[in-house]
Design goal:
Radius of gyration: 68 Å
Shape: rod-shaped
Length: about 700
C-alpha cells in the first residue's frame, strides 16, 4: 500500500475513529492492489473498467443486483442542488441549469450488492460524468427510506434516518487512486460526533475505508467501453469502488440492517462543507445483511382467513392471511441468517391447499416444502417468496324448465337447465333423465348428457311420450375442478302426459235401400295413437237421438288404430234409421262416439212393376151339318204361333165323339195360350160309314195374342 498527500481540506477533518468491529482506522490514503479484488469478493472493483478481466469474476457488465440511475440531459434542463446546499443540509433546493464546466457533470451511477460465500455483504458503486476534470469529489448517499422526487424543482426535504450512509469518493488530479470515506447520519448525542456541522442531525465522523482495507476503488486512466448504457468513456470519466460492508461495521453481526434508496451527488470541491452541485436522482435498492421472507395468499372461488404458525423466532410468530394478503418478514423484523419455517396451520372448512410455490434468491438461501410447511435456510440478503394457493369448490345450484308441463300422448318435450353460483368458466356435463316416479328412482328415459361451457348448459334431447302418466325430469351436474356436483329437485319438473282424444267418423255402405235390403257401416279413428286398441260398437237406431229401437250391428276389435266394418243389417221394414259407432278408448286414447245424425239411412218401400200379357185358356167349337146321322170323332188341334202351317203335333189337342149333326166344343180348362202371336186351329172330322172325313183349312180359325 502506498500513501499520497490528502487534499488540505480533507486533512483538516482527519481524526481516528473506532468502528463497530473494534478496528482503529486512520483517514490515510490507500493505494489499492490493482491486481486483487477485496478478500471474499469476486467483483473487479479496482480495475477502472466495466468488463470482466478474469474468468469467474464479476464486473459491472454482470454485477449482482445491479441498479442504474441516469441524470437528466446535460445543459439548461439539467437539474442540480442550488442555493448553497451542503451535505449536512436535510433541506435542499433543486434548480435547473447547466453545470459549470469546472464542476463534474454527472451522467449516471450504478449500485450493486451481494452476500458472498463467506457470508459477508459487499457494496459496489460506480459513477460516470460527461466532462474530464482532474479531480472528482463524489458522494453516494444510501438511505434506509425512499427519497422524495428530486426530478422536479423546488425545496425538498430528504428522508434521512439514523444510520444512513454517505460514501465519499475523492480523487485528486494526479493522485493516482481515490480515497473512500464512510459517514453515518447521526441524530442523537453530542455535536462533537459531527464531521463538519456544529449541530445535530449531521453526518458523523468520516472513516477512511481504504486505509483499513475495507474498500478499494479506481478511476479509468484511458478510454473504456460502456457495455450497459452503450458507447465509450474517456479517461477520468468513470470511477468505481467496492466496500466490505460487514467488516466495515456497517452490518454488525446479529443485527439486521437494510437500505432501500441510493443516489449520487458531486461536491463543488474537495472540501466536505463545499456546496453540493449536480446529482443523479435516487433509485430504489435492496442492500441488506438480513433476509426477507414473503408469504402471499391466493384463494380460488372465494375468500376466507387462513392461520399460519412460524418457527425460528420470526415476529409475529403467528398471523392470518386472506386473498391478496401478504406477510413480510424483513430487516424490521430481524430475519437474520438461520433456519425458519412457516406452516399454514388453520384452514377453514371446505378449503384445501391447492399449491405451495416458493422462490429463493441469494447465495446460501434455500427452502424445502413438506405439505403445508416451508422450511427455510436464510443467508444474508436472501429472499424466500412463497405463495400459498388455497382452493374451495363452488357449490352451484341447477334449476330446470320444461318446454311443456302437460302434453298428450305422442307429444315431445325437452328440458332446459341453468347453473347458478358456479364459476364463470364452469365446465363438466349435465345429464338429463326422465323418471316415472316422484322420487326419481325409476328411470323412464335418458334425455342426453350435455357438455357445459363457461357455465352455459345446452338443452336436453327431446323425448317422445307414447304412454300416459306422470313423469319427473331431473338434471344432474357432474361438477368440475372448481365446482361441486349439483342435482335439480325431482318434483320441480312434473310432466303430465294425457290421453289422446280421437274422433270417430263413419260411412254407410248405402244411405238409401229398399225394404229387404242390407247395409253395413265403416268407421275411421282420427287423432288416435298409432297403436290404438280397444273396440268399436256399431248400433242402428230408429230415432235421430240414437235412443230408441237399438239394433246391434256388432262389436269389432281395433288394431293399431284400424276399425273393421260392422255386420250387415237387413232392413225388412221401411223407415228412417240412424247408425252410431262408439269407440271404447284404451290406455292412451279416450273414447269417442260418432254423431248420430251423421249416418241417416232411409229404407224405402218396394215399388213393384206391373206388365200385361194374354193369358187365354182357348176352346173351340165345330159344327157338323148335312151329314147322315154322323158318328165318329172330331179332333181339335191348336197350333202355336211358331207353327204357321199346322204341320206339327199341335200345342193342344182334344178329340170329342160325334153323335149326329150339331155343334161340338172343346172342354179345355188347363192349357193356357200365352205366347204372343197368332194361334191357329185346325179341326178334322174322322168320318164314318155314312160320311166322309173333313178337315178345316189351317188357320181358318185363329186368334192373336199381343201386348200393346
Amino acid at each position: 500500500m502506498t500513501s499520497r498527500t490528502e487534499p488540505r481540506t480533507l486533512r483538516r477533518f482527519r481524526r481516528p475513529l473506532i468502528l463497530a468491529s473494534g478496528v482503529a482506522l486512520l483517514a490515510a490514503a490507500l493505494v489499492p492492489n490493482a491486481n486483487a479484488n477485496l478478500a471474499g469478493s469476486s467483483f473487479e472493483g479496482n480495475d477502472g473498467n466495466m468488463i470482466v478481466n478474469t474468468g469467474g469474476n464479476t464486473d459491472w457488465v454482470n454485477a449482482p443486483n445491479r441498479v442504474r440511475g441516469d441524470d437528466l440531459t446535460s445543459g439548461s434542463t439539467d437539474n442540480a442542488f442550488g442555493q448553497g446546499s451542503k451535505e449536512d443540509d436535510p433541506n435542499v433546493s433543486v434548480v435547473t441549469g447547466s453545470i459549470p464546466p469546472q464542476k463534474s457533470d454527472l451522467t449516471r451511477f450504478y449500485v450493486a450488492s451481494e452476500t458472498a460465500a463467506n457470508g459477508k455483504v459487499y457494496l459496489y458503486l460506480a459513477w460516470e460524468r460527461s466532462n474530464v476534470l482532474g479531480s472528482a469529489n463524489m458522494d453516494f448517499e444510501i438511505n434506509k427510506l425512499a427519497q422524495p422526487n428530486l426530478t422536479t424543482t423546488g425545496q425538498k426535504t430528504l428522508n434521512r434516518s439514523a444510520g444512513d450512509l454517505l460514501i465519499t469518493f475523492d480523487f485528486t488530479n494526479g493522485g493516482g487512486n481515490p480515497v473512500l470515506g464512510l459517514l453515518k447520519w447521526t441524530t442523537t448525542g453530542s455535536a462533537s460526533q459531527c464531521f463538519s456541522a456544529n449541530s445535530l442531525p449531521c453526518w458523523g465522523q468520516r472513516v477512511d475505508l481504504s486505509a483499513a482495507g475495507f474498500a478499494e476503488g479506481a478511476v479509468n486512466a484511458g478510454t473504456i467501453t460502456e457495455p450497459i448504457a452503450g458507447g465509450t468513456l474517456a479517461g477520468l470519466e468513470f470511477g468505481e469502488a467496492a466496500i466490505n460492508m460487514t467488516d466495515a461495521g456497517i452490518f454488525p453481526a446479529g443485527q439486521c440492517t437494510a437500505f432501500g434508496s441510493a443516489f449520487l451527488k458531486s461536491r463543488s470541491s474537495a472540501s466536505f462543507p463545499a456546496e453540493v452541485k449536480d446529482f443523479v436522482a435516487p433509485q430504489p435498492v435492496n442492500i441488506a445483511n438480513c433476509g426477507k421472507i414473503i408469504i402471499r395468499k391466493v384463494t380460488e372461488n372465494g375468500d376466507a382467513s387462513f392461520g399460519y404458525t412460524t418457527t425460528g423466532g420470526l415476529s409475529p410468530s403467528t398471523f392470518n392471511l386472506s386473498n391478496g394478503g401478504v406477510q413480510t418478514y424483513s430487516s424490521a423484523t430481524q430475519v437474520q441468517a438461520g433456519n425458519y419455517s412457516v406452516t399454514e396451520s388453520t384452514l377453514p372448512t371446505g378449503w384445501t391447499l391447492k399449491n405451495l410455490a416458493c422462490t429463493a434468491t441469494g447465495t446460501g438461501t434455500s427452502y424445502s416444502l413438506s405439505g403445508a410447511t416451508t422450511n427455510i435456510t436464510m443467508a444474508p440478503e436472501g429472499v424466500v417468496d412463497c405463495t400459498y394457493t388455497n382452493h374451495i369448490n363452488r357449490q352451484p345450484a341447477i334449476t330446470t324448465t320444461l318446454s311443456a308441463d302437460t302434453v298428450v300422448v305422442g307429444g315431445t318435450v325437452h328440458d332446459s337447465s341453468t347453473l347458478t353460483g358456479a364459476t364463470a368458466n364452469a365446465g363438466g356435463t349435465v345429464t338429463y333423465t326422465v323418471y316415472s316416479d316422484s322420487t326419481c328412482s325409476t328411470s323412464f328415459a335418458n334425455a342426453g348428457t350435455k357438455t357445459v361451457t363457461n357455465g352455459v348448459v345446452p338443452d336436453s334431447d327431446a323425448v317422445t311420450f307414447n304412454s300416459t302418466g306422470d313423469f319427473y325430469w331431473r338434471a344432474a351436474y357432474s361438477g368440475d375442478s372448481n365446482n361441486d356436483p349439483a342435482t335439480s329437485v325431482c318434483t320441480s319438473e312434473h310432466l303430465v302426459v294425457t290421453k289422446k282424444s280421437p274422433t270417430i267418423a263413419t260411412s254407410l255402405s248405402a244411405t238409401t235401400v229398399e225394404v229387404g235390403g242390407s247395409v253395413h257401416d265403416s268407421a275411421t279413428l282420427s287423432n288416435a295413437t298409432a297403436n290404438a286398441g280397444g273396440t268399436v260398437t256399431y248400433t242402428v237406431y230408429t230415432d235421430n237421438a240414437c235412443s230408441t229401437g237399438a239394433q246391434s250391428a256388432g262389436t269389432v276389435n281395433v288394431t293399431n288404430g284400424v276399425v273393421p266394418d260392422s255386420n250387415a243389417i237387413t232392413f225388412n221394414t221401411a223407415g228412417d234409421y240412424y247408425w252410431q259407432a262408439v269407440y271404447s278408448g284404451d290406455a292412451n286414447n279416450n273414447g269417442a262416439t260418432s254423431v248420430c245424425t251423421s249416418e241417416h239411412l232411409v229404407v224405402t218401400k218396394k215399388s213393384p212393376a206391373i206388365s200385361t200379357a194374354p193369358n187365354l185358356i182357348p176352346n173351340d167349337d165345330a159344327t157338323i151339318s148335312g151329314a147322315l146321322t154322323p158318328t165318329g170323332t172330331i179332333t181339335f188341334k191348336l197350333f202355336a204361333p211358331a207353327d204357321a202351317t199346322c204341320a206339327g203335333a199341335g200345342a193342344y189337342t182334344q178329340t170329342v165323339t160325334v153323335n149326329g149333326n150339331g155343334t161340338y166344343s172343346t172342354t179345355n180348362t188347363s192349357f193356357v195360350a200365352s205366347t204372343l202371336g197368332t194361334w191357329r186351329w185346325q179341326v178334322t172330322y174322322s168320318g164314318d160309314t155314312n160320311n166322309n172325313p173333313a178337315t178345316s183349312a189351317c188357320g181358318v180359325e185363329r186368334f192373336t195374342l199381343a201386348n200393346g
